[in-house]
Protein 1
Amino acid sequence: MYARKNILVGALLFLMAISAEKVVSAQGIPINGFVQGLWGGRLQEKNPTSSDYTASEVRLQLRMEHNADIAEVFARADFFNDEVVAGGNDWELREAFTKFTLLGKVDFKVGRQILTWGTGDLIFINDVFAKDYESFFAGREDQYLKAPQTSLRSEYYSPLGELALVWTPRFTPNRTPATGRFSYYSPMSGDFAAEPFEVPRPAETIRNSELAGRFQKTVGGMAMSLYGYKGFFKNPVGFDFVTMAPFYPRLNIYGASARGQAGGGVFWLEGGYFHSYDDQCGGKPGIPNSNIQGLVGFEKQIAGDITANIQYQAEKMLQYNRYERNLVGSDKEDEFRSLVTSRITGRFRMETIILSSFIFWSPSDADWYYRFSADYKLTDNMTVTVGGNVFDGIRRFTDFGMFQLNDNLYARATYGF
Amino acid sequence: MKTKISRTLGTIAIAASLAISVNAQDAVEIAKKAHLNYYYAANDGLAEVSMKIVDSKGNERNRRFSMLRMDEADGGDQKYYTYFYEPSDVQRMTFMVHKSAAGNDKRWIYVPAVDLIKPIAADDKNSSFVGSDFTYEDVSGRLWTEDNHTLTGEAKLNDRDVFILESKPIKPYKGFSRRVSYIDKELYLPLKEEFYDGKDKLERVLTAEKIETIDNIPTVTERKMQNLQKNRYTVVSFTSIKYDLGVKADLFTERYLKTPPREYIK
């Protein structure tokens, strides 16, 4: 019943889109975007979630831009009907910002925006901008992994290098998959659960705003960067034993990266020191300890149509003996953790067929996550995609092990205009 | 008697080899001149490019983008900046190439939907450019110094006098085993190029469909690349061409990859 209504709405939006060859607003500003339907189903029957679907939604994205001499304005909004979680119509302003330059040296981007930096491929150390793991697991387009945030970005360019500062007045956390759509392991109950949980954000004070900075310099074709961040863990990894509720502990990050071309490919290196500000001595059981992380990656075109990469990430928890001494419960994390990933992308038939495979595998946590997709571009406007997400792990509390009941397959159809 | 004959033969051989080397010298000069006219016109250039890709079933795909080029030296390094308008899924994407005459090119792409700058690991110059029949190398050019050239004849093509030049890669190369170019004697522009594959079978044919003079520079404003083996073709046309804009090198950096220079790119 619901699914049928969804398809009808999709068909209607689709007809509207193709009948409007060039959509133009009253001011003559062109409007572009897409209409997209996404349907996904679970592969495991035994599951605490209420729906057999991981996705059943129709989405209309509208984009508009205006480039004046003094500034550039861009906006993009999604209107969607999501039957699995939202249960009806909703919309989201994905981006709405203005860009301008002062004194020819400082570029500003102000407003709701999506931000990215760092070198990893789906591994983020110094990229402290909001992610959306619900979209990522549900088979939405890759662009939805990045969630919007309302920020002020300034970039100062000088012969010495480029200094970027991003100020986000209101802390913007990651969107977790725990919205009711996916099940997860709950250490509280010691079992898999699907109840959505809302975690209160830190109070709206200037002290609680997020500040991220990067200094970048390109030396001999290699981009070298230093990073700093003052804010909070982007996931609700803290647990308050008094109120028995999760929260966002404070976090500072200091990091560096390098990226360049060598050996007929691209390589990257990145590292970061995660300073757990609320648990500096490492003895508080409800707050993660500080840690250091490092990442190395290499990507190469291995055949005319195929590109492959490999990444290795290592993480060491600091003050591990204090963590061990004060641990509550039995879900004990390891001192050293490692993660290996590999992406293979093939573009065939003059880039009309794109096959993609991405594996995350943690030798230390003994868990893995595999995602794959096949895109077929019927025309310049119409793309059909099928794909899937598969999780597994020996232990229930690890990063991917906790989502092991969420294996899904999905189909997506997109008409761009 | 015997010595006289051998001496005569020797003289003939020297004369013949001289003729060949003169010919080879001419051939290299022609190849160089045509290359510079075709790929290094003026010091910089801007054009709006429309690309029509037609597959063997007649299905048509279209790309539209602006392309900005700057030469560091004639026949040397170049920088390219591309801003996409169509199709919808690549709209606002930018693409940058630092072409190195000596080593490997560097390429970057910027995906605005996720604010992502990504260097592209692509050392294969023969991969297709945006899904068309043109390769990256067809777009930015293969240096004449990478091939041996022979002037094999002269002819008329579409009422124009042309040199016929045969070029063979010095190092083994998978892009072609042999290329035959028909170069306009007056304009020194290739009117036609035939690319032969490893089995010496004709694979692709490039033709100059339209030549216009812009700012006193004869410019091929419409090019067609046919793939005879796959029975498909791509036509590119260049409009709003401008030369010698005085483009600065710092425009080809990450800053402008993220924020297109609006004085050139609307």
Protein 2
Amino acid sequence: MDQNQNPAVKAPELLTVSPSPHAHRQVTTASVMKDVLIALLPATVWGIYLFGIRAALVVVLCVVFSVLFELLTQLVLRRPVTISDCSAAVTGLLLGLNLSPTVPFYVPVVGSAFAIIVVKQLFGGIGKNIMNPALAARVFLMMAWTGEMTVFPAAYDRVALSVDAVASATPLVSLKQGVLPDASLSELFFGQIGGCIGEISVLMLLVGGIYLLVRKVITWHIPVAFLGTVALLTFLFPQGDLPRLTFMLTSLCSGGLVLGAFFMATDYVTSPVTPAGRIIFGVGCGALVVFLRYFSGYNEGVSFAILIMNALVWYLDMCTKPRVFGKKRREKKA
Amino acid sequence: MLFGKECKTTVKFTFRGGTHLNEHKETATLPTVRLPEPRTVSIPLSQHIGAHATPTVAVGDKVLVGQVIGTVEQGLGCPVHASVSGTVKEIVTRHNAQGIPIQNIVIENDGERTLHPSVKPWGKPLAQTAPSEIIEIVRKAGISGLGGATFPTYAKLQSALGKVDTVIVNCAECEPYITANHRLLLERGETVITGLEIVMHALSVTEGIIAVEDNKPDAIALLQKAVGDNPNIRVCVVKTKYPQGDERQLIYAIKHREIPAGKLPADVGCVVINAETLSAISRAFYRGIPLVSRIVTVTGDCIKNPQNVRAPLGTPYSELIEFCGGLVKTPKKIVSGGPMMGQAQWDIHAPVTKGTSAILVFSEEYDRINTYHSACIHCGNCVTHCPMHLMPNYLAQYAQARRYDDAAKMNVMSCVECGTCTYNCPAGVQIVQYIRVAKGALRMKK
């Protein structure tokens, strides 16, 4: 190349040659996961404020052990260690928010192990799991430690580290029996009730959900379809002889519905990629929640509903393939 | 003009999908500068799709600007001209950016810029020139698409003869960093319009549309003034969004016509030509000058004085970089063309060719963000942004698993390789590269 060389400009011996594009949006898996953590912060803080130090401890245990189990599994399975992408921390935080602050301390540890090792890593790690790890772990704990998992303290009952709490009936129990819960609608909305650490304040969850929407981490499709379906069905078919609107609003503000709609159902890995698929997914979740709340042996149905829809994600994606530019929708495949 | 006003005010023409990129068009305010005569030029005899030209000069020959130094006897291809006057120093085989060996004619520049006697204007006025004569002028001038894809323009015109009703001038310039077309519109906008008139005459078309992205308001205003009352030409403002400059997306945005998969713009009655190509056609017709130079945007975080430079074809990149003040950081990557579809070069002394719309020199700091890789997290960003409405995440997964037939069933061949999916991927998956692999494998099978 001597003829063409220009001594005034020196390049390093080797230049990087890589395929295009050579530009990249400044958004990474880690930044997305950090956004989810930030969005969950208001609800977490509120739960800790309401239930005291023990709630904080449960959440911290979940996060720490989730990250730890991810690290250990990846080391044992000789996979690249990916704890820095924060996805294990998100799983841990979600699991913690789905637990009662009164659970014995081994429950968060076992739950984290189940979520990370069984549901996530054994299926291939981030991006490969079929079901939402935090929800699957919650369901596992519900079945294995039903008693411990369903003891909820009352609001402002700042549970001491070792004292057993007095159980208080959750709004969902009342709704199932066709009566209105003791808590008023505003108490439900602002989170002045007993329940799992992260699911009590609808307001705080909405703040986080709107943050995710504004940051374009999630799209509106799943939460709107999910909550809209629940609203519609509970309005059309109220339990007992409660007024429709009150029943609908109470149903929307009870249990883990808002947490599930904004933070669990929208989990990238276990939700469809197409807008139409996301709407069907949300509608399916909503319908299953109402069905399970009305007819199943459990009081709540959000976990089961989302897990069932998780299993359908591949089919929803395939059924809602967008029409390719320049092709007819139903073209005979060659 | 009613239609022109309509374009200007309310609806912005666009398509579904795509993404708004960080524009980095800092060089848009700086005038284009002519490069001082390079010491030597190295002109590749194959600069685009089509046949390799054979040299018509020998080592030691004196050549003049515009003289034919390589011809294509058969098949697709156009002649290659000397871009400077001087002596043929050697004819060597060099590897281009893709590693393909290509014959290069190296000319030592005498700095005189003496024109070859064959460079003279086409004598007849446009109205008395037959379409076939215009196509021949375009072929003889060696003009190929200057937007980057470098398809020989004469072949494009020939295939469009009698089939099209609209000529669209592509001034979208949707790639970040590049401002060569923008500056051309500001400085030589009238040559684009005269070039458009020549092409419209050649194809006997009465509708000419100049499509400009709305991030160039100064160029839009100037063009609208220059078009004036011409009833056949209008300026159409399209939304600034990548890949607005892809002909499929451009035709859809303006005419709402969808090119069927595997077909060409001519099949929906349109022909799309880059602005600088039209300017070159105008120069070839009115002044007889073949394509011997082009505007190159030299920029990137390693360049001291980023700007647009008009450089003779064959000029080494290093010469342009030196002219722009040299390097201020150690380069990691040198890209020919835009950052989305441009090609990374392995040689800083590579020659400027007809397809070199920009030379981007990036340091390691710029490139770092591109080195993050993790597994697909199924976020769906690639699906919502794909301008062809494909599902790139699944295509990439099929390609990774070597299930190319399944990828074909999901229309992998419709991919235009614009790179929007990879750009938007938070996991850093090289989606478009996996798709290229699948497309290559499927082509081999046929």
Protein 3
Amino acid sequence: MKMNRLAKIGTSLSVALLLAACGNEPTDENDTGTNGDTSDGETSEGIAGSVQVDGSSTVFPILEAVAEEFSIANPEARATIGVSGSGGGFEKFIAGETDMSNASRPIKEEEAALVEEAGIEYTEFQIALDGLSVVVNPENDWVDYLTLEELEMIWGEASGVTTWAEVRDGWPDEEIKLFSPGTDSGTYDYFDEIILDGEQIKRDASLSEDDNVLVQGVQGSTNGLAYFGYAYYAENMDTVKIVPIENSEGEIITPSDETVQDGTYEPLSRPLFIYVKNESMKENETAYEFAKYTLEMAGEMATEVGYVALDDSLYEESLETLEGLK
Amino acid sequence: MKNKVVVPDEKQISRRITKNKLAQGIFFLATLFGMVVLATLIIRIFSQGIGYLNIDFLTNYASRRPEDAGIKAALLGTIWVMSITIPVSLILGVGTSIYLEEYAPKNKFTRFIELNLANLAGVPSVVFGLLGLTVFVRLLGMGRSILAGGLTMSLLILPVIVVASKEAIRSIPQEQYEAAYAMGATKWQIIRTVVLPAATPGILTGAILSLSRGVGETASLLMIGAMTFIAYTPTSILDSFTILPIQIFSWASRPQAEFQAVAAAGSIVLLIILILMNSLAIVIRNKYSKRY
């Protein structure tokens, strides 16, 4: 009897241990050639070191695509792309934890000061453009375009504007329903800075960190109005209507690959950046190769994941600058 | 004591029957609501994701192309994290519950600890994530590694394991202890030969159920930076990682509709893992439960 019970306990415990043991399996799958921390290890056949990248969730899809191709070309190399947001990425960059930081906005002055304080030299590269797109419901047949002042009236808490009629004469006297990216996103930061000068956004706007929720909001509401990255508009062209925006020259521009790339869709086009640590470029071959690969591939990858590529000459210039860092 | 029997008249009886039917209807609707929502969810996930579910999906890394995207890194990450969480949380959890039930003096301080344990079991997981970020990632310098993730998740499920184990130990009849004491057994002998064998099914059931909560856990590990793209298999517990729920979350927020389907396929895999773990808990409970 006693033995029997012990055997049973043994079995049940081993079930638990089996679960634990499963965890060790992956170790055996590893190529014997890979070495955990060869940060600047050089082998004759390709690169085998590791590179740490972190930063903006907006830029992430581009870097993910680059890292995917990079891993195929250099199977021994280990590229880790984190998503901590532009600010979170710089925090790690300042702490010296990353070789490269990506951002959907330029580095802030106070961040730049901290980087300098930490004794880290860096170089900024633009890798793509994103056109913030303002969209309405397809049943909305009155909005033909919006000016920056009108956007400011619609989105600013201070203006007190709540209906379409208050924005422009002849528009229906119906309440506008606003959908905006969440306050943690670089998209929100950029829009708030450009349109509202950093002032309070309408308090009754629905905020969401998930841009798909904004798309659904506008799809489901005739009086809906939202803004988000171009990629989300490009995927939902049939179900939301884009609003052309008047630029500083007084031209009315619809965001598209051409208008974002040639700079006429402004000021809602924003550049996307990578910041590389100069020291890593010199000392870590993998980091250098990865940065080089990023600049070479960024245009193609950006287009593929829904952003707008820069002019080719800009990438070539960047590559020359990068070459100088090695 | 008056013991008057009241015989209800017919009107009262019919009213009671109506009330009974009403109550039955309400409870049935409550059940139906849950079932319908669950069924909708499952049907939606399966119809959306089944097309992406194949061997490649399990053996590919994440990709920008939905048709090439796979969950290899996330699946391995989940297994690695679990390989830390399971031993740590079991050893600490069972140890704590044995101490509290068997050794700790029954005083105000012990009761205070027990009260806090019950409260901790209800603390939002983000809070544990913040703790993990501050203590493991920053203070102890583990970085955003599998080790830090596994320990954070251990903390998260520890209170539940302790509470479940305590219940299992407490349900052992007093006579068992008395019999063992009568034989002259020491406390440790009793724990080894009476308490653990009798409590094991309850402990394991509780442990597996809380581990399956851990497998589906997103927020706490998101806090410690597990949202990453990795195209290599981890080789040590200090490597970066990502886990299944976070990979699903990452896909679900993409603009491309195809990625929603990939996210659904990931959800199916996660669902299957959870169902397997919960079935294991049921099997253990049925097979090893002792009746006194």
